[in-house]
Amino acid sequence: MTGPTTIRYGFLAYVSRSGSTMLGELLSRYEAICVCVEANLPKELFGLGAYENPIFQSADELLDYLGEISAYSKLPSWGLDCETVVEQLRDRLPGLTGRELVRGLMEAYRREHAPESSVCLYKGSPAMPWDGRELLAAFPDFRVIHLHRDPRAVYASQKRSINPYTGSAFSTSPLDTAEQWHRAMRESERADPDRWLDLRYEDVLASTDDCTGRVLEFLGIHDRKRSQTGALATQLPREERALHSRVAEDPDRERAHSWRSEITPRERRAIEVVLGDRLAQLGYGPVDRAGAVSRWQVLLAWRARRIARLARRAARLLLRLLSGDKRYWGKLRSMVGSRPGRGPRPERGA
Question: For residue 186, what are the contacts with CB-CB under 8 A and spacing of at least 6?
Fold first, then answer.
């Protein structure tokens, strides 16, 4: 007689428009894997950065909180009944932490949508790849699957794709995309390889079964029973279905290089100057070194954006300080004392 199945958990992390929905759909075809649709839960539940992890003392407090975040997050897309979730977590009250609530919500999603699965993956924000080591420390029994893609292709997709919730493009700045990609890859290099798996989008297109096999091995899954279609595509919110209209199709290898005709020479040059030989090191060459815009123009714009981003973060923390929250003093001091140029060092020959 076999005992109860141990449920394992993890995060699917990526820079937006890196092919995560395609990968999530492929993984959800395996009976053992449940991939949650994006919920955009608040960062405070994960206790990341300067956010203090909340602690819930009563069922009423927890129910009120779930109702509150349902109004501004995508939690309703999970199709859960909040009162049922509270009942499932009642024995952990008082003293339920935000991180325990994240796990509880994931387990409720798994029971609702993939009860036969043994692994549940949280997909997307706020589990971002640049917070990788912090995520692993906050959730010590979770693992992270990091999907990355040629940043020029990421930017091309961000530029042409309209966010259904904002009505605007995901990005119009190649420098912002390069910065996000750099932060993600830098964190990836520093993460524990036993709990962190890197996958290239391009490899998933070219060798789908090999890549999904790597994921199964990483997650400790031996049962490889799967169906022709996955569950993720059918669970996507109505607002997102046009954005992911081809997600149920088999991967198309031609998509790996379509970016070449979708971004301008100046946009390509901007990304390549900032990231330099790092692209070639990860198999994303060749790099055009005779671009349409000077290296120094790119560097000045990139540095200005970094300073502006640092200033915005400092302003948000200052507002919290003025509200009387003392725990942000150390965070503010560390930001003010940091150099705005701690990002990627552009290649000299670029």
Answer: 130, 344
